[in-house]
Amino acid sequence: MIGLFCFVLAVLASPFKSKLRLEAENAVLRHQLIVLRRRVRGRTQPTNNDRWFLVQMYRWFPSILKVVTIVQPETLVRWHRAGFRRYWRWKSNSRGGRPRIEMELRALIRRMSMENQLWGAPRIHGELLKLGFSVAQSTVAKYMVKRRGSPSQGWRIFLRNHAPDIAAMDVFVVPTIGFKLLYGFVIVRIDHRELVWINVTTNPTAEWIARQITEAFPWDGAPGYMIRDRDRIYGSLVTHRLRAMGIRDKPTAPASPWQNSFVERLIGSIRRECVDHVIVLGEAHLRRILKSYARYYNETRTHLALDKDAPVSRPVQRTGVISSRAILGGLHHHYARV
């Protein structure tokens, strides 16, 4: 009865409604039927387009709330308020201001801040200005790596700062064609992995090793520390010679070759890249081979620890014809442009 009464009132009031409002209500009713046909599992799922349509119709004709049945009027009003907020949030976003800096510059700022633990934003900003980048110091501070606590160097930096004053020495054995034993002696600088001395003997003594140390270093160019193992060949004569040259003797712990890792790695390279491929005929033959390998090791061979450079830095050659020169009879080759 109530429904019939509402229908009669709607029919009586229809002549007084504007034509546009009637068309709007009809459009809303038709759209609701479309939404109901897309019902999934008995539940109506309006899309963003449906919400936008209903909100726009509500903006233009607020009276359509009377014919909306698939959602509550409060829901439609809430959609309208949400759209209003999003619209003005988008409208309020500033399209001016400073332009965003490039990704390469951001990466460079982060790299500088990570590689230089003691640098702050002013120092990095100054370096960037010298490199031709126009950027504000506040922007540099924004993209720097945030640290916890005071800046401090790492162990790698600490060891690199002390490496130039450290050298290491050791003795290795090479058999000859007659099954006799020859003894090679090497000294290496830790900082540039430079093989500063190599020699061979049939009878290593403390006096012979002390003489090799004297010949390896000038008196004004000796390292501050010498790392060695606890071989009994290093007698009191060797320690006295080191002390006289201003070198502090640093023997490793017993049975701990890893504490002298640089020279152990060098001896391993000498074996793998040289003496393991040669039958040694005698002392003079081995000395000549090792001297040739030492020149190759210092001047030609690239090292991973030196960023693919040689201990005696090789220049980068970009022009010329590439030629090769055999080393150790063709066991290795040196490539250069001429």
TrEMBL record:
InterPro entries: Integrase_cat-core, RNaseH-like_sf, RNaseH_sf, Transposase_IS3/IS150/IS904. GO terms for biological process: DNA integration. GO terms for molecular function: nucleic acid binding. Signal peptide: none annotated. Residues 160-319 form the Integrase catalytic domain. Coiled coil: none annotated. PANTHER family: TRANSPOSASE INSF FOR INSERTION SEQUENCE IS3B-RELATED (PTHR46889), TRANSPOSASE INSO FOR INSERTION SEQUENCE ELEMENT IS911B-RELATED (PTHR46889:SF4). This is Integrase core domain-containing protein.
